[in-house]
Amino acid sequence: MTVRTRLIIITILGLAITMTVWGWVQIQTLDQILAEQQSKRLSSVAETVSTYYQHFPTGHGLSTLDTSLKEQIQADVRLARIDLFTVVNYDIDYIEYIAGASRVRYEWPDSLVSSVAASRKPRYIRLQTEDGPAAGLLYPVTSEKTKATQFVVGVITSSRANAEILSRAQRLLVVSTIGLLLIIPGPRGQLPLAHRQAAGRYHPHHR
Q1: Higher pLDDT, 1 or 103
Q2: Which helix (H) or strand (E) element contains residue 81?
Q3: Whole-prediction pTM
Q4: Domains defined for the chain, CATH in brackets
């Protein structure tokens, strides 16, 4: 095996590894950006629902809220489900479903809702529903007096668009990597000029 061939192999392997790592980093960054945008949108919906419920927690207010949630689900095709859970007497072991609307079937695990209620911190979760990949947010709302969790809002949105974007980015990465590696050796399997000169300097018969 000549020095030129070795340089070609080393160059191609090095580029392949570098581009794979760099591409993976870019895909992860894109995934994180999409997830952050989705999380902000879910938080906005949850805050709207929680604000309304705090002002109209019973009776006619709940009926109106239930209707409003159904209208919001129908108006926004990206939204898959909105649920509202109350924490009975601020006891996280007793959580009841109050109202909601949905276009897909999904049941939040009681243990997960209780965990979020106990932590008093929102939790963003990636889900798999019958309609495909989705993202969910459990948003706890605390009482101003006791600082304990008063109720929890659950919002789920479809992630199919994000999944398609990531899939296209991955395909583009693979195609561009293969294409670049194919043209790197140059015509007739030769390295570019700079690499050929380097190979000449290290050739055992070069003087």
Answers
A1: 103
A2: strand 79-87
A3: 0.71
A4: 43-164 (3.30.450.20)
